[in-house]
Each structure stands twice: as C-alpha cells, then as structure tokens.
Specification:
GO terms for molecular function: transferase activity. Residues 71-127 form the CASTOR ACT domain. It comes from Hydrogenophaga crassostreae. Residues 5-68 form the DUF2241 domain. It holds the Pfam family ACT_3. This protein is of the alpha+beta class. It has two domains: 1-23 and 70-137, VC0802-like (2-Layer Sandwich), CATH 3.30.2130; 24-68. Helix content is 29%, strand content 28%. It contains four helices and seven strands; from the N terminus they run αββββαβαββα. Strands 1-5-7-6 form a four-stranded antiparallel beta sheet, with helices on one face. Strands 2-4-3 form a three-stranded antiparallel beta sheet. Strand 6 (102-105) and strand 7 form a beta hairpin. Helix 3 (86-96) packs across helix 4 (119-135). The longest helix has 17 residues, at 119-135. The two termini are 25 Å apart. The mean pLDDT is 95.
C-alpha cells in the first residue's frame, strides 16, 4: 500500500480518474438485512435509514426506483483523509461544466458519482484538471 498524499498540488497531479463500468443508483433501506452487502457499493447510516449505492440491476431486483442513474468515477490517488482542497478542486471543475457530483470518501480513494449522461464530460473535466496541475509543476 502506498503512503497517503496530503499535498493538494500532488493530489491533483496524480489523481488519475477512472470511470468504472455500469450505472448506479442511490436508495434508502430500513435495515441492512434487506441487502446482500456484496452488492452495496457504498453506504451511510442516516436518521431516515441506511443510504446505499447499488448497481442498477441489484436495485431493480430489490424494487428500488432506478430512473436517476449515476456513473462512478474513482480517483486512484491515495488521498489522505485529512487532506484539504481536493474535493473542492474537482467539484469546482465539474461545476464549471454544469456537472453535479456526489462524493464518497473511501479509506484510500475518493469516489465521485455523476449523472450517467455526463460521465464522459466529467472524465474530460477531471483529466483537464489533472493535466493543468501537472503543467504547473
């Protein structure tokens, strides 16, 4: 395992966005008992229940609405959980392109969910952000 990076300049230079295959939805369940946790991409306990991110096929099997779909982008850089500015930088870059983003921080990587129809535009914006940071070094 690599060492986490906390420098914003280095995080941007090495963020390496990767578009994961598939489409994903957000849903809320009353209990994790309803789920096969192997199908859960991410989860967060909220006052209303357990919010989960699932692949569309799994969500459909469970009867969840799947009309609002997202693409999942992973930043391969090993970001320090205490690093400052990475989320703001990529959210701003996506926002300038009119792309909303929902961010999930994993222990090692940041994960960005963007509207499925804007996945390629999001990847282009993230690559441009990385290339700009690399050119500035």
């Amino acid at each position: 395992m690599t060492q986490p990076i906390s420098s914003l300049a280095l995080l941007l230079q090495h963020m390496t966005p990767v578009l994961n295959a598939g489409e994903y939805v957000f849903a809320t369940v009353d209990s994790a008992v309803q789920l096969d946790l192997r199908q859960v991409i991410a989860c967060m306990r909220e006052p209303e229940g357990l919010s989960v991110v699932l692949e569309v096929a799994g969500a459909e099997r469970l009867g969840f609405a799947t009309d609002v779909r997202f693409a999942w982008i992973t930043l391969l850089v090993h970001s320090d959980l205490q690093a400052v500015g990475l989320t703001a930088a990529f959210a701003s870059a996506l926002g300038r392109e009119g792309i909303s983003c929902n961010v999930v921080a994993g222990h090692l990587h940041d994960h960005i969910f963007v509207p499925s129809g804007q996945a390629e535009a999001a990847m282009a914006a993230l690559r441009a952000l990385q290339q700009g940071a690399q050119a500035a070094r």
